[in-house]
UniProtKB/TrEMBL annotation:
<protein>
    <submittedName>
        <fullName>Regulatory protein, tetR family</fullName>
    </submittedName>
</protein>
<dbReference type="GO" id="GO:0000976">
    <property type="term" value="F:transcription cis-regulatory region binding"/>
</dbReference>
<dbReference type="InterPro" id="IPR050109">
    <property type="entry name" value="HTH-type_TetR-like_transc_reg"/>
</dbReference>
<dbReference type="InterPro" id="IPR001647">
    <property type="entry name" value="HTH_TetR"/>
</dbReference>
<feature type="domain" description="HTH tetR-type">
    <location>
        <begin position="34"/>
        <end position="94"/>
    </location>
</feature>
<feature type="DNA-binding region" description="H-T-H motif">
    <location>
        <begin position="57"/>
        <end position="76"/>
    </location>
</feature>
<dbReference type="InterPro" id="IPR004111">
    <property type="entry name" value="Repressor_TetR_C"/>
</dbReference>
<keyword id="KW-0804">Transcription</keyword>
<dbReference type="GO" id="GO:0045892">
    <property type="term" value="P:negative regulation of DNA-templated transcription"/>
</dbReference>
<keyword id="KW-0805">Transcription regulation</keyword>
<dbReference type="GO" id="GO:0003700">
    <property type="term" value="F:DNA-binding transcription factor activity"/>
</dbReference>
<dbReference type="InterPro" id="IPR036271">
    <property type="entry name" value="Tet_transcr_reg_TetR-rel_C_sf"/>
</dbReference>
<dbReference type="InterPro" id="IPR009057">
    <property type="entry name" value="Homeodomain-like_sf"/>
</dbReference>
<keyword id="KW-0238">DNA-binding</keyword>
<dbReference type="Pfam" id="PF02909">
    <property type="entry name" value="TetR_C_1"/>
</dbReference>
<dbReference type="Pfam" id="PF00440">
    <property type="entry name" value="TetR_N"/>
</dbReference>
Length: 257
């Protein structure tokens, strides 16, 4: 699936809509519409969750809402601004209980942070296909950033280290959960499940794991395959997260000296 970008719309319009300072409050002359920005964004998120960003268009969202496409444009100027609103709205779901990232040991806080972001991308896989080089600086993303910084506050780290640490954990989650999405995309594109693919390649396993040509792979591969089966995304996530937290522990120890 092709990558799309946040920040492709009019920045001023996006910011006004993100912070609801754009006058979309039903104060326009004429009959008051039952449709508002929140309803449009919610419909767009439902569509993207079900069919991906490729299916997203102003016309399609309007059809799902049972209104003319031009009706949407009176509230949201275009797809670029809509994508910004969608991501910020979805990010607002994170950490409904804010205390989970501000209480307990630092390792527990960061594990909770990582798992929450992992679950977020599983609920909204379309967000993985959004490049946020120009992040939509709305209340959802700013609340996320604030709470994640609090998770690493008070550990003796500098402000720069705190920011880099939050970025590191989020980058790890995004990269790891990408494997889940790639597998789902492959199954959708080929019509062949993971199990079917491995079953079809099984007759060639002896040839592939040739102990003469690939002695290390021939020793490790079958053992890992028997233990892990096909790619186990959740186990890879937990293993990688533990190693990442081990390294963060060294950083925190050094900062305390």
């Amino acid at each position: 699936m092709a990558t799309e970008f946040t920040g492709t719309g009019d920045p001023a319009r996006s910011m006004a809509l993100l912070w609801r300072t754009g006058g979309d409050d039903g104060s326009r002359p004429g009959p008051r519409s039952a449709l508002d920005v929140d309803g449009i964004v919610a419909a767009a998120v439902r569509l993207a969750d079900a069919e991906g960003l490729a299916a997203l268009s102003m016309r399609r969202v309007a059809a799902d809402l049972g209104v003319a496409a031009m009706t949407l444009y009176t509230h949201v100027p275009g797809k670029g601004e809509l994508v910004d609103l969608m991501l910020d709205s979805a990010l607002g779901e994170l950490y409904p209980d804010e205390a989970v990232v501000t209480s307990g040991a630092w390792r527990t806080r960061l594990r909770t942070l990582a798992r929450a972001n992992w679950d977020f991308f599983l609920r909204h896989p379309w967000a993985l296909h959004l490049s946020t080089g120009r992040p939509p600086l709305g209340p959802g993303i700013m609340r996320k950033y604030e709470l994640e910084l609090r998770a690493v506050d008070g550990l003796g780290l500098s402000e720069i280290q705190m920011d880099l640490l939050v970025t590191l954990v989020n980058g790890f989650v995004r990269g790891t959960v990408g494997g889940v999405q790639e597998k789902a995309d492959a199954e959708r594109a080929t019509g062949i499940t993971e199990d079917q693919w491995w079953a079809a390649t099984e007759p060639y396993v002896a040839q592939v794991f040739d102990a003469q040509r690939y002695p290390t792979a021939a020793r490790v591969g079958p053992v890992a395959g028997e233990e892990l089966g096909a790619y186990d995304s959740d186990r890879s996530f937990e293993f990688g997260l533990d190693r990442l937290l081990d390294g963060i522990g060294v950083l925190i120890l050094d900062a305390s000296r």
